[in-house]
Design brief:
heterodimer, A: 327 residues, alpha/beta, B: 485 residues, Aldehyde Dehydrogenase, Chain A, domain 1, Aldehyde Dehydrogenase, Chain A, domain 2, 2 domains, 6-stranded mixed β-sheet, globular
Chain lengths: 327, 485
């Protein structure tokens, strides 16, 4: 879908002849509001599902297969990225039946390193682009940034939205930037299109109404995934925010027939947290989303806890963190 | 390993509770056998298994209980200072908290409600009612009651409670009665007597003076003996409107006081500007909480026509995720119907709804083979004239009606013989207040439903009864103007 087709599809959905800032605003503000108290109560209730034995084993393996194993530090080195890729390929050397993660997520300049380390394993390389994490650069810079990542072999692009533009009500700018980045994702003739994950940075959007509007705006502009956070801002992924985003992709499918994925990122560290998210996926968007194709966890330390819990279920004993590689 | 996300069973252990094979009556601080030795069984509605045999109190037993209550009132409880009474109530509240798990398990076994609800709602709220009223026991003079500065107890209170919230209704009745200096004879419902009998043990554990609380188990005849007893000063009843009317007739012309909490057909009004996803949750908790066995349930959904189809679609999708089944499973959302009789009544009314032309939709869930069950159900194409729009079903059955303007919503909401509860869903505060001002209902929830708190008064208009429970208003029902000396 080129930027022009994204615009024309959006015009059709909005029922307008021109995709102006005003028409976007009218449409996004016409979405049903979110009641904060009710949304948080629902998320809390979903978090109390009791998950035992066989269901837990399934949930742990599914969560592992949904992880975007991530390192996004200024101090990242090729060696560190290679270590991370080794862990992605063999998460638990003691048990080869352990599923592999979905992707390794790195900064742009590490895409080549990760690509080489992962080879044709089927594990994707995801790159954060568009002046991650702040997004404070001009559009040409953001597009070049993305082009770099795609050229280096990234299968997935995690872009940030311009929160400043969004908060000032300039929805058209946000739409155009997402649509333009999406076009760059399709620009490499030798490779399949890179998947576009749009990071809303929900911690900076402040209200659930904004989270819902940003989710719809991103989907309207052609996002393959909507993602909560960069991990650099607190709060990052919270269960109520993920609930609102799951409602958005559910309703988007009802409207257009198309599925969009959801990726909570940042702050999810324990198996218990991951299971709460899976329960929320199951009961909000539905079981169709319970695959790595449609749901991801952006995490670095979550995998460690999942592996420890997995070992415990298998052996009956909790071995401790020394029995899982750090990265 | 399951192929999808099928929650494995997570059953609560029933080992935390000992159920005796039979129970006597609790009179004068002791468990005693009934005069004529009659008994009846109480069953687990989720399985049909017998849990225990419970004594059936006759007129002689009720008389003994009232005399024990009178003695305790005259000799101990009436003369006691409010501060002392408060200590006993605080002690009962703390014991309820300490034994919360035992109470929750027993309530679920006897009633059929999900352990999630007995654990998270019934038992904590029951304890909260004792804590709240314990605080009032020595401050009644400062409560600003209409009885003036010397509120005095009434004496012996006869209390009859229903089976939908057995321990919680006991707490609503006993806590304010004791805090204000009265003594009580309480009759729990015949299908759910066990937590009341466990509460009798709590009274013993708290060293509550003998006779302050008496519990007589039995069916309608026992309740009638209690309401007719000449030495009872007040009757407090929660239950069906029909029985409430009988009690009112019985008491008419006597000196006895009466408060009634009766049936309802609560309207849940959803405006087109509401937060739809949260409104759907509120509709679910309004009618499917406690299997719809709730007198203030939001059993009539009034939804603005422009969003009606969308709301019903979302509701049906959401009902597909409700888990119906073993109430002892921590993941169960909807448990068992309390009795065969109640199941028959729900079934009959639902059949009437279909026969009268409303469209029935039931959640596609597998129901257990044994016990009493009813799938969460929605009626659409309902008109005001249908029985399912007018009569209290007291089960997991929602009737959906539509409206076009706020005035029509209010008119339809008020067009019922009942007036217990209502809900309003709108993002616009002024619209919520405008609507609430015009609804003839004792409780109106805004952007929420079925929220309870001991500080908030509860009670009805019209055929939903009279008198208020909880809050300062609830204290009024248990006091008279005392002497000013």
């Amino acid at each position: 879908m080129s930027a022009t087709t994204a615009t024309s599809q959006a015009r059709d959905l909005l029922g307008v002849s021109a995709l102006s800032n005003r028409s976007l605003r009218t449409w996004l503000h016409g979405l049903p509001p979110v009641d904060q108290v009710g949304a948080e109560a629902r998320a809390a209730a979903l978090g109390t599902r009791s998950i035992k034995t066989t269901s837990k084993a399934w949930a742990i393996d599914t969560a592992i297969s949904m992880i975007d194993l991530t390192t996004l530090e200024g101090s990242d080195t090729p060696g560190k990225v290679r270590n991370l890729c080794a862990k992605a390929l063999l998460p638990d050397r003691a048990d080869p039946s352990t599923p592999r993660v979905a992707a390794v997520c790195v900064y742009n300049d590490m895409v080549g390193v990760a690509r080489e380390a992962l080879g044709d394993s089927g594990i994707n390389v995801a790159a954060v682009s568009t002046a991650f994490p702040s997004g404070r650069a001009s559009l040409p810079v953001k597009l070049l940034d993305t082009q770099d990542a795609v050229a280096a072999g990234a299968d997935e692009i995690d872009m940030v939205i311009d929160r400043g533009a969004f908060l000032s009500g300039d929805y058209r700018t946000v739409f155009d930037q997402i649509a333009a980045v999406k076009e760059v994702c399709r620009s490499n003739p030798d490779r399949a299109d890179a998947h576009l994950k749009v990071i809303l940075e929900t911690g900076e959007l402040a209200t659930y109404d904004n989270v819902r509007r940003a989710s719809w705006l991103a989907m309207l502009a052609g996002a393959d995934f909507i993602k909560t956070s960069t991990g650099k801002i607190s709060p990052a992924a919270t269960l109520p925010v993920v609930l609102i985003m799951l409602e958005a992709v559910r309703d988007w499918r009802a409207l257009t027939g198309a599925m969009v994925g959801v990726k909570p990122a940042g702050g999810i560290r324990t198996t218990k947290d991951a299971v709460k998210h899976l329960v929320t996926v199951n009961e909000t968007a539905g079981p169709d989303w319970l695959t790595p194709q449609w749901f991801r966890f952006g995490a670095s330390s979550l995998l460690t806890d999942l592996l420890l819990q997995r070992q415990k279920l298998r052996t009956g004993a909790y071995s401790g963190s020394d029995y899982v590689t750090e990265d | 390993m399951p192929t999808g996300f099928e929650y494995a069973p997570a059953p609560e252990s029933r080992a935390v509770v000992d159920i005796a094979s039979s129970y006597g009556l609790f009179v004068g601080g002791e468990f005693v056998d009934p005069a004529d030795g009659a008994s009846f069984k109480t069953v687990n509605p989720a399985t049909g298994e017998r849990l225990s045999d419970v004594a059936e109190a006759g007129a002689a037993d009720v008389d003994a209980a009232v005399r024990a209550a009178r003695r305790a009132y005259t000799q101990v409880w009436g003369p006691m200072s409010g501060a002392e009474r408060g200590k006993y109530l605080f002690r009962i509240a703390r014991i309820l908290q300490e034994r919360a798990r035992e109470f929750a398990v027993l309530e679920t076994l006897d009633n059929g409600k999900p352990i999630k609800e007995s654990r998270d709602v019934d038992i904590p709220l029951a304890a909260a009612h004792f804590f709240y009223h314990a605080g009032w026991a020595d401050k009644l003079e400062y409560a600003g009651l209409t009885t003036g500065a010397r509120p005095a107890p009434l004496g012996v209170i006869g209390q009859v409670i229903p089976w939908n919230f057995p321990l919680l209704m006991l707490a609503w009745k006993i806590a304010p009665a004791l805090a204000t200096g009265n003594t009580v004879v309480l009759k729990p419902a015949e299908t759910t007597p066990l937590t009341a009998l466990l509460f009798a043990q709590v009274c013993q554990q708290a060293d509550l003076p003998a006779g302050v609380v008496n519990i007589v188990t039995g069916a309608g005849a026992t309740g009638q003996a209690l309401t007719e007893h000449p030495d009872v000063d007040k009757i407090a009843f929660t239950g069906s409107t029909d029985v409430g009317k009988q009690i009112a007739r019985t008491i008419a012309g006597t000196r006895k006081r009466l408060t009634l909490e009766l049936g309802g057909k609560g309207a849940n009004i959803v405006y087109d500007d509401a937060a739809i996803d949260q409104a759907v949750e509120g509709i679910v908790s309004g009618i499917y909480f406690n299997q719809g066995h709730v007198c203030c349930a939001g059993s009539r959904l009034l939804v603005q026509e422009s969003v009606a189809d969308d709301v019903v679609r979302r509701l049906q999708r959401r009902l597909g995720t409700l888990r119906v089944g073993d109430p002892m499973d921590k993941n169960t959302d909807v448990g068992a119907i309390n009795s065969a009789e109640q199941l028959a009544r729900i079934t009959a009314l639902v059949e009437a709804g279909e026969a009268e032309g409303a469209t029935r939709w039931s959640a596609p869930c597998e129901l257990p083979d044994r016990g009493y069950w009813f799938a969460p159900t929605i009626f659409t194409d309902v008109s005001q004239a249908h029985r399912v729009a007018q009569e209290e079903i007291f089960g997991p059955v929602l009737s959906v009606l539509t409206f076009r303007t706020p005035a029509e919503a209010v008119a339809k909401a008020n067009n019922t013989p009942y007036g217990l509860s209502a809900g309003i869903w709108s993002d616009k505060g002024s619209r919520v207040l405008w609507t609430a001002d015009r609804l003839r209902a004792g409780v109106v929830w805004a952007n929420s439903f079925n929220k309870f708190d001991p500080t908030s008064p509860f009670g009805g208009y019209k055929e939903s009864g009279y008198g208020r429970e909880a809050g300062r208003h609830g204290l009024e029902a248990y006091v008279a103007a005392g002497s000013e000396d």
